[in-house]
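Final report, closing paragraph on structural work. Over the funding period we assembled a curated collection of sequence-structure pairs, and we close with a single example.
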Amino acid sequence: MQGDAVLPEDLLERKRTADRRCVGLPGPDGVGIDADLMGELLAAPADSQPVVTDLGAADRISVHGQNVSTFCATDKPLRIRGSGFGVRDSGLGVRDSGFGVRGSGFGVRGSGFGIRDSGTATIPNPESRIPRSMNLESIWYGPSPDRTPTLVFLHEGLGSATMWRDFPRRLSEVTGYGALVYSRAGYGSSDPAPLPRPIRYMHDEAAMLDDILAQHEIRESILIGHSDGGSIALIYAGNRPKTPLRAMILEAPHVSTEPGGLASIARMKIDYETTGLRERLARYHKDVDNAFRGWNDVWLHPDFRAWNIEEYLSAIRVPMLLIQGEDDEYGTGKQIEAIEAEARGPIETLRVPSCGHSPHRDQPEIVLQAMMNFVTKV
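Its predicted structure, as stored:
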């Protein structure tokens, strides 16, 4: 699919700036925190990263189907809305028949491919260290939330909306459901998070989830959480969510810490400081140090060793699909077993061979099929 729109020079210059910042790796599905993917990031030369959009000689914005992985918010956010390709900003309007766009940053929304910025999120928890309002990067795929339940993707500890690559789009297409993929504070093109993060930072993220869903007018959700995102989903589901929750799919969720996982995270800190990993991650996060330190520092804090969210499990009664890579070096099967033992809803478990911490990246076809089967029957 491709949608083109001729834009004025001042807007094009802002878009060129975003293009220089927003790039994606040609192979992996995203920046995970498993050793194999980290090796790929370190090995890839900086100039091999393709830009996501191609303005071309004619100065036209081109969106090229599978290659599209991100739209970053510009310094002066665009306000974009429309059923075709629409741009509105200070009276500037451009429309085409490609797809719809909506948001306070770059955003696209349509029945096939869409991105919609979440604008300003209001945080209900007065004790949270996250600011009460912020701009969050987000992507929307598929039908609008008034037509179907919405798949809500919650990324890992070093992830972002764009690091899921095309997996949310593919799941949206095979299920017929809409999908919201957003970057939490400190990640991607979202506003930075205050540092240092508190030990209960995932509780803070869960506390603001209802407001994010409400902003996107989501009536019923299916949460798809990876690693930290899975833990956030568990806290949210076990704490009486306001928005109807149909089910959850969790990849490599954590309910407690494990010595092996903490050791792997400590090794990543060394790699971040001594190798090219920081440069690679910077291609996905506008404030890469905020993203990395906001995750790595708190996980390596001595007090975090006692972190545990098993108290929330017994209140969860929605169906869950649990997915764990058999070669995950950041968590063992004990995490899944704890959820199976305590949660009160029906649970399906998929243990994936030849798979590390990111099942949707390491074994995408197996995971896509399992998620599709689960979603279509709950």
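The radius of gyration is 20 Å. DSSP finds eleven helices and 15 strands in the chain. We thank the funder for supporting this effort.
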